[in-house]
Amino acid sequence: xxxxxxxxxxxxxxxxxxxxxxxxxxxxxxxxxxxxxxxxxxxxxxxxxxxxxxxxxxxxxxxxxxxxxxxxxxxxxxxxxxxxxxxxxxxxxxxxxxxxxxxxxxxxxxxxxxxxxxxxxxxxxxxxxxxxxxxxxxxxxxxxxxxxxxxxxxxxxxxxxxxxxxxxxxxxxxxxxxxxxxxxxxxxxxxxxxxxxxxxxxxxxxxxxxxxxxxxxxxxxxxxxxxxxxxxxxxxxxxxxxxxxxxxxxxxxxxxxxxxxxxxxxxxxxxxxxxxxx
Amino acid sequence: xxxxxxxxxxxxxxxxxxxxxxxxxxxxxxxxxxxxxxxxxxxxxxxxxxxxxxxxxxxxxxxxxxxxxxxxxxxxxxxxxxxxxxxxxxxxxxxxxxxxxxxxxxxxxxxxxxxxxxxxxxxxxxxxxxx
Lengths: 278, 131
Description:
The structure holds two protein chains of two kinds.
Chain A: H1 3-24, H2 29-40, H3 44-69, H4 74-97, H5 100-120, H6 133-137, E1 142-146, E2 149-153, H7 158-175, H8 180-190, H9 195-220, H10 225-245, H11 251-275
Antiparallel strand pairs in A: 1-2
Chain B: H1 3-8, H2 13-46, H3 61-64, H4 66-74, H5 78-106, H6 110-127
Helix pairs in contact in B: 2-5, 4-5, 5-6
């Protein structure tokens, strides 16, 4: 394959991945890594390096839009970023130690989880709770707009949420993905933060988490300019497009189709990892 | 108490986030433009070169260290320009945390100034690897 063909093919796949990732809320990374490794035979270390970079681009690029809506909570985000960045550093170190086959198998398992979650869907927690003692001391509670009126909400179970965020960070650093889905579960299900606040705060956190592994990825040579260039530009374009049409899309059918696609990718990743093809 | 001064430093969470969000967007645009410029240059110079990324071969220090990348970009090497754009991109969330430190300090929120400082320290620790 010539470099022109390769760049073009990677760019188109990345636009598609960014678009679907934004529509389904799973992020571009979970699609772009299997697409590059399975369809174009790119080594998984280059693929996760390029994906990590694109994760930062979509998170920072969308930040202004999310802030305008007034849902994200910068205190919750910043506090939990202590856990996600520490996890991300651990994950990035592991990514350098683990072999490519093992990486492919772990990636496949995470994809299966994403597929199941995408299939079930997340109706979300919209019943605000009162803060427990620790959350009160940390002043994590706030309010968010519901039908134009501010609705107060509190935060609970901080140690469990903090631990889960460490895990989310480690997955992000190990596989070059945003792991936004795990972050949302930690906030929405475990810490009882309203769904809207959880998803927007998670988006804000993804970029900082990914930046914590970026230095380690760079020094290890995971970020190859010729692979990362079309991936970053493609996923960013696709994600911005996806965010624009999100309002009009029939998300439920799309999620079901997407779940099946992801499940197929997951099985192929695992099989190729076991047989040593990836 | 100086009323004018109090007004000048008045900062709340939403205003802080709006400023940070805007700056992040500008950073991403600058990064994307740099990566695009490097990418166009790369394709003009190497469009018919054969490529194969099946095996993992870490590149040289000009692609893996800050000093190498800056030097290579200053010489208008296509891969150096792309890496430099990616460094700008990696810097956006770091700048976000640094701005939050300043913002919380302006809000006189001791606890969250310290929390954002811890996050900034962790990020710095990780970035030192690519010196």
